[in-house]
Each structure stands twice: as structure tokens, then as C-alpha cells.
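User: Predict the full complex structure for these chains.
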Amino acid sequence: MSYVKCLKAKESGTEYPIEPRTICDNDFSPVEVQYDYDAMRGKVTRESIEAGPRSLWRYKDLLPIEGEPRAGFNSGWTPLIKADRLAKKLGVDELYIKDDSANYPSYSYKDRVVSVAITKAAEFGFDTVGCASTGNLAHSVAAHAATAGLKSYVMVPHDLEEGKIVGSRVFGPTLVKIKGNYDDVNRLCAQIADRYGWAIVNVNLRPYYTEGAKTHGFEIAEQLGWRLPAHTVLPVAGGTILPKVWKAYQEFIKLGLVPDNKPAMYGAQAAGCNPIAKAVAEGSELFHPQKPDTIAKSIAIGNPADGYYVIQHLKESGGFAESATDPEILAAVRLLAETEGIFTEPAGGTTLACAIKLIESGRIPRDEPICVCITGNGLKTIECMAGQFEEVEPIEAKIAAFDTLVAGQSQPVVVG
Amino acid sequence: MATTTRKCWLTFEGGAQNQPRLWEMSRKFPTVMFDIRQASVQEDIGIMAVLFEGEEDEVQAALDNLVSNGVKVDPVEGGSLVAP
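Assistant: Here is the predicted structure of the two-chain assembly.
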């Protein structure tokens, strides 16, 4: 049984049936899935969720699908790590890392949103899915489409590096190289969705796709022992995940599954693409679009589709937004790896770097529970770490040479 | 000539927010219908959701006119407003 009621426009409140749709016809605002929470009460419980699979589908009752999942059977339920060594470094009492760099099968949080979008595509009867992307989204769509037995099209700019294409092509999608930049490719995708009747996951399935991001928040709450962190730091790119983690927290509060501790949300952006952080710092409700220039390419969106709503949620929750420079981002990538053994992409480095700045500025108190959300794996972007390490000279294969090397080290090997 | 409808986000900044750019456009392209569906304006920036309708060439010329006068025009669906 599904608890889904309808789609509803965020601005005018106009209601629509459950169908492939991105925006409201009247005010052009995004439409969002609505649920019957009254019907859920007493049925969607801690026990019913705990009895579910160890994947994002344990939250199926709070996701917009009617039947059984068609993809993502092993996606989600990623580790929530109590990061004591990092906490000690930062001088905070209680710090957690929600680690979607370990998400299955394509090692980013996108496996959550795509699992829901692909399942919904199959329910709607689509036989072909697609997306425009050069990174995590493309990898995830290609992988999940393979699982569900759907045809997939991955649209990329024609000059994309081969290395980034392989992570998608290995799953067997049709790759389409398009002469143009990201904007051109995205625009074409919207037209393709209309003309060919295909499911473009982040266009005509966007309301369902974005709901998958809630599972990141549900898991944080459940893994924390059915409570919410006082402070949650998330990256902001197009603006999907932060409003949805906020929605997840509010849904659990509404259903009485967690106490309402008034959780605060914080947005993290790279200084080279920080329209939201800049608007928040200026106290503005609107943001100025920017041209991105940062190594954190997976979150380099200068005109975030849901940016307005991110600002609203930051304000409503009593949170803030921060931005970090590329050197700060790379330093944070290394700090997380050296203290907690997690290798994240620059987007994750951005989130941690911003969390550090928010702690140091006093925006986030040191004595309250903090969760830093890591959304992607560093092994996909190793080129970003080029130049970060000194050259290592080889030594002779003799113990004496090793003895000399160790004796010459002035710094301890272990970080801590 | 085929008629078309285009749903656009218009961003007015860098001074454009203080100028009557839509009125100027409508004077130059009187056959292009525009319908404001949403708007939010601050001191330094204004954003509008606008539906344009008319002959394809005229609508494109009207949008080009806005762009040449400092208004940022993005399609509501597709383009930079859809997260990659």
C-alpha cells in the first residue's frame, strides 16, 4: 500500500496527479510529492522500518513508489561513523560522518535518487531512461538502468575526458556526445524527454528522483538511535539534498519517530561557486547566478535549480551557509582520509572544510552533536589530488637502506 | 510561421533590475505575448517566471532583445536550472 497522495506546486499549491512532471503549469515552481501522514501514523513505526531491508528501501513507505523496487536493492544504508579522531582534531564533543562515498553501486549519494527514479520510470512504463551529466549522476543512471533492464542514454558534452566517460560506459548505456557545453546538453535533454517520451531522471522524473535524497536523512536519524543531530552540514549544488534531508527530519518528527530537537541545517559550497553562501551571508532571499571556477566540479552549479528553497530551509532551521577555497577543500579531503580513513571527492572536502569554518566561527557550537555529510568517493577524482604529495625516491631493496630512511624521518608517520 | 510558447526565468541584476526591460521589449515586439507567473524583486536583483508566446522568430528575437539589454534568460526546464 502506498501513502502517496499527489504532486503539489511549492508556490501556488496547485495539485496534480502522480505523473511525469517537473513544474507547475501556472507558476512554474517545482512540484513535490505529498503523502498521507495521518494514514501512516501507527503503521510506519520504528519497528516496521527496522524490519525492512538493509538498503534505502527500508523507508519505502515514505518514498513515492506504488509497487516493489526495481533498482537500488543494495543502495543506501551507508555507514554513519562516529568520527572521534576527527572530533578531537576539531575540538568538538560529538561528530558523525554520514558516508555516501560507500554507497552502492556507483559510490555517491546519487544512487539514492536514481534508485527511486528508475523504479518510478518502470512503474510509469518507460523503457528508456537518461540524463545529462559528466559525473556521478551518469554513473548511477547507467548502473541502475542495467539492473532494471532498461535502455539508458547518457548525454555528455563532446569534449568530456575519456576517463570520466568510462565510469558510465562500462554499464552499457548509449553514449551521446553533444557539441556544446553543459547548458546545451541539459536543454537538449528536456526537449528529448518531451519528444521521445523517455524518462530523463532529473527532468521529467525530478519530483520522484529528489525524494530519494530523503533516505540520507532517514538513515542519519535511525543510525543515531532515533534522534537527530543538532547540526547537519550538507553540500549545495543544484539544491536537491539539503531540502530533502530537512524534509526527512520533519517527516520523522511528524510521525513521532524522533524527538523534535529543532535541527539546524548548514550549506557548504566551494568559494569558486558559492551563490547560496553569498546570498545567505548578505541576508538575501535571492541569489546571483555565478560562473563556476572550482575543483569541486560535482557541486559546481552556478544557478541552482532549488537554490531558493535551500536558502529558505537554512533560514527556517536557524542554520547558515559557508564556502571554502580550493586549497581548504583539498586540505579537508586529506584531513578526513588521515583521521577517519575516508577518501572523499572534493565535494566532500568542501563540506568538511565548511563545517570546520562554521565551528571555528562559533556558528556551530562545539558541545552539540554534529553530522557532516559526505556524498561522493575520492577514487573517482584522483586527478584533483595531483601535486598534493611529495615525490617518493626509491631505495635499495636492503634493510640498511630502510633503516637509514626511518632514522632520517623527522615527523612521526602516524597522524593523530 | 509556427507559433511557440517558452517558459523562462528572467534574472535582472547589474542595474537591469531598475530598468523597464519587459516594457521596452513589448514595445519592440508587440506581437509577442508575455505573462508573468511569479516574481521576486530585491534592491540588487529581481527574478521573474515569464511565459512568452508568439511566432517562433519573434519570440526568439524578443528574448535576444532582453539578453542584449542585460537580462539573463534561462529556460524553466532544461538549461542551467536543471542540476547535472
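Chain B touches chain A through 26 residues (CB under 8 Å).
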